[in-house]
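The step that takes the researchers longest sounds almost clerical: writing a folded protein down as plain text. The outcome of that step, for a single protein, is printed below.
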Amino acid sequence: MLEEPIKEGDSNPPKMAGSACLIGAKTREEVVERLKNDVYVKEGVWNLDEVKIIPFKSALRKAL
């Protein structure tokens, strides 16, 4: 996720605000277990203590 849109002609790296990961799961615990095994968590890129788990309902009618 970016802090702001990339401006046309700007060749500088974008200002990052964070990242997102969509996980299909039935429980919060299932999500946490999946994250514990994620390469970004294991390599210290994502701090599991700061992860925000936000449930949502997809508006897609058909699986991709």
About this structure: Residues 23-64 form one domain. The chain is about 20% helix and 0% strand. The CA atoms of residues 27 and 46 lie 21 Å apart.
